[in-house]
Design a protein that fits this description.
It is a single chain. With 230 residues, the protein is mainly β. It folds into 2 domains: 98 residues, Jelly Rolls (Sandwich); 108 residues, Rhamnose-binding lectin domain (RBL) (Jelly Rolls), CATH 2.60.120.740. The longest helix is centred in the first third of the chain and has 9 residues. This is SUEL-type lectin domain-containing protein. InterPro entries: Lectin_gal-bd_dom, Lectin_gal-bd_sf. It holds the Pfam family SUEL_Lectin. GO terms for molecular function: carbohydrate binding.
């Protein structure tokens, strides 16, 4: 296995249909990218009126998170290409589709998820326990979040009023962590406002990220979409 090139699978499903992601026995899904909306005038146009694919610059910002939550770590999963799942990023007159790119990892190599509190130093090491790729392993960010989304994370010793806002996040988290960590064997990112900008003044925030350990040659076979866990 360590001498083989692992390719990514690319799945497209038109609106109101289902995207089916699956892996062989002993493997689990790792999402690389998901897109729901419309980015061209060639995908999913058969039998549709011309006016339903004029808008080619609309997509939802939740696609990566939703598909990752439903599929990562599973052998197979189904995702419906519907506005009720992703919200309507365009308009009712635009016919949309979902695109997903994923790869299959041995079950023991499924993604890692870590959280770090505001002001804490975050260090990620991915050098150990990587029999699949031996010494050719690098960090591949799946998603990063800086802000607050609950009242249970990083609250020890924090005054009650500093974790009431649970709907704040910075839009730069993915970009910042990607630039500092992707393609490296280890990296450090500080969970501080000076790095990510203050997403919610007066609220104690935390950094949460999910990442996988990938072979360097995977980058030659995957597709990337505009959202990439925005």
């Amino acid at each position: 296995m360590s001498n083989q090139s692992l390719c990514a699978d690319h799945v497209v499903a038109c609106e109101l249909s289902t995207a089916e992601l699956s892996c062989d026995s002993g493997q689990t899904i790792l999402l690389i990218g998901a897109f729901y909306g419309r980015a061209d005038r060639t995908t999913c146009i058969y039998g549709r009126p011309d006016g339903q694919f004029n808008n080619i610059n609309c997509f939802t910002r939740t696609a990566n998170r939703i598909v990752a939550e439903r599929c990562n770590g599973k052998k197979r999963c189904s995702v419906y290409a519907m506005n009720s799942v992703f919200q309507d990023p365009c308009s009712r007159t635009t016919y949309k589709y979902i695109q997903t790119t994923y790869t299959c990892l041995p079950a023991r190599e499924s993604c890692h998820s870590v959280k770090y509190c505001n002001t804490a130093s975050m260090c990620v090491s991915v050098m150990s326990n990587q029999s699949l790729c031996a010494d050719h392993v690098t960090i591949a960010l799946i998603g990063a979040f800086y802000g607050r989304a609950d009242r249970t994370t990083c609250i020890q010793g924090v005054p009650d009023g500093q974790f009431n806002n649970i709907t704040c996040s910075t839009p730069t988290a993915n970009q910042v962590v990607t630039e500092r960590c992707n393609g490296k064997s280890r990296c450090s990112v500080y969970a501080v406002n000076s790095v990510f900008q203050d997403a919610c003044y007066g609220t104690t925030k935390y950094l949460e990220l999910a990442y996988s350990c990938e072979c360097k040659f995977w980058k030659q076979t995957v597709f990337f979409f505009p959202t990439m866990w925005i």
